[in-house]
Structures are given as C-alpha cells and as structure tokens.
# Entry
Amino acid sequence: MSTAAGINVSGIELTLDCAGLTVLIAGTTTAARHTVRRYTAGGATVRRIATPAQFHPRLLDAVSLAVVVEDPVTAHDDGAPLGEQNWEPLRAACRERRILTASEEPAATGGRVTLIGGGPGVEDLLTVRAKQALREADVVLYDRLGPYRTLPQLAPGAELIDVGKTPGHHPVSQAEIEKLMVAKAREGKQVVRLKGGDPFVFGRGGEEVNTCLAEGIPVTTVPGISSSIAVPAAAGIPVTYRGVAHAFTVISGHQPLTSAEFEALAKLGGTIVVLMGIGTLPQLTSGLRKAGLASSVPVAIVEKGYSPEQRTTVTTLGEAVTAAGLARCTSPAVVVIGEVVRQHRDFSATLERVLAQPLGAS
Ligand code: SAH
# Structure
C-alpha cells in the first residue's frame, strides 16, 4: 500500500508522500470524511477539529499541513446550527508559522449511486470524471474487468466490495448487487458501481439505473471506454476504415444469435465485434458462414487487452475455432471479424499468428 495522498494544486494532481507527517484537518465530520480517509490511508497522523471554536495555535505543534474543508452546510453533526464558519484565525496562524494550508471541497451528503465505466482495465484509461467520483466514494462495488487493482489508491478508505462475475461463477447475483447498492445508498453513502468498459454495453447498467430510480435513489452514470472499440484498437485494428468498413456491429456471444440475425449481419457487410464470444465461437463462426460470409474473412481474437498478457491471434472465419483451440484463447477476449483485421499492427507484447493462409495487407 503506498504512503501517499493525492492533492490538487491549481488543477495539477500531486501525490503527496505523507508517511510520518502530522496533518490538521479542519471541517465537520461529514464534510471532512473523505479528506480524513485520504490522509489516513496515505500514512499521515491526522489531527482533527470540527469547528473554528476548537482551534488553538498549540494544535499546530508538529503539524506540516493544515487542510480546511469548507462546509457550506452550517450545522453541527448533531444538527445544531454552527453559525459563521471562519477559519481565518487558523489560516493566519499557519501563515505565521509557515505551515502549508490547503482547501478541499466538502464530501457530498445524501446517499446516491454513480455507475462508472472503468474502461478496459487500466487506470489511465479511466475518465477524469470517473476518478473524481471514485475519490468521493464511500463504497465501491467492482468487478474484475475494470481497473480494480489500484482501487485502494483511487478510492482511499472506501469500502471495496468485489461483486465480480467470472464465466460460470457468480459470487454475487445481479439481484444481490442491486440490493446492496440500494441498501448502502439508503445509509446515506456515496456508492460507486464500477464496471468494465462502458456501463451500458452488456454491463446490465440499464437495469441498475432502473432499480435505483424505482427505489427513489438518485443515480448518475459516467461513460467509459468500451472494450468493443478499445481492445481492437490495442491490436491496431480500427473498427471502421474508409473504403473497407463503414459500419461496425457489436454483438454479445453470451446468447447465440438466431439465423435471421446472422443473415442480417452478413448482409450489412461491416465489421463484427463480438464480446463474450470465446465460449460460443463455434456457433458464431458456423452461423456467419451459413449466412453467407466467406470462410476466408479475416478474424482476430484479442485477449486481455491493455494488460501485459495482451495477445492477438489472427486467423480466418473458417479456421477460427481450430486456431483459438491451438492458441488456447481464453476470456476476456474481443473477437473482430471483417476486412479491417488486415490492418492489425503488433502493438501488443506478443502477437500470435495461427493462419491457414497468409493475410497480406490489402
Ligand atoms: N461493458 C463492457 C463489456 C462487458 S461484457 C465494455 O463496454 O467493454 C465483458 C466482455 O468484454 C468480455 O467477455 C470481453 O469480451 C470484453 N472485454 C472487456 N475488457 C476486456 C479486455 N481488457 N480485453 C479483452 N476483452 C475485454
């Protein structure tokens, strides 16, 4: 666990190593709860005052940094009126002693749920808005497709609950996830539901939003970078290409398509991107061939995009099942079907070619 707390100086994020530092945090318990957590998680010794009346210059002894959490809500934690919050004496005493002072926004009050798209699994593909929501979270419900490894730093002190589903193994059911989300928000908590990719692409995000709305819980969503576009891109495959593919269709391999759907797809002629398609690759490839796609159509299987184990297997529709078997392709993987696959570039750590016939660049 790192010994650091993120701070923002004029819009620039700094990581402050605060192991062994004493930090005075001024602000009501509710408003300052995230600030206290961040500095505590960062290894600082935290000294607390809730109101200006509690300030005494002696409290600054051994303090390296004072953080003021300006709370526009002028009420004590017990509901009694607080009156004017005037932290100027504290700031003046800090200036006199050359102690750094920082200001932070108060933590939000009132339970709510934020659905966040976490992107394809690495922290630097999270949006700025997603990072902000994580920083303010009291509880994070996550699965392992998003950037979960760095959650202790991204959401310092938040309760982290793994509700991840791996294929064939459902530790927490969808109904239980939704119940938990609602229950935590009812406790007045800022609940973040962190999902892989974009929350509305095969992520059951829509259902979670509807559950919150039905339960009267305020809910917002933060879009994420979907693996359906980003994982092909990691292998250098553009899902559209002028003169090659002017449409792309994203399908789930979770449930096999009907023959009518296969026929419509084959007629459309664009790129086909399949998520959750490893288990149903035989049905998928035979369905598309029956619907009229040539067995020579190039196929790429991109596994574990953006991780050190990222691997691309390039094959054809006719050979894909054999190739995936030989290369032992496993989930998570994105399958790309169409002429754009010829554009693939070796951006990944390893590139495996399991080819029946060579695919030259067109
Ligand atoms: N909402 C997600 C998709 C959830 S379905 C999104 O928009 O990306 C889960 C499927 O996404 C996986 O089975 C796999 O097909 C794909 N996937 C997600 N992250 C991936 C990654 N890093 N590498 C390869 N495939 C990934």
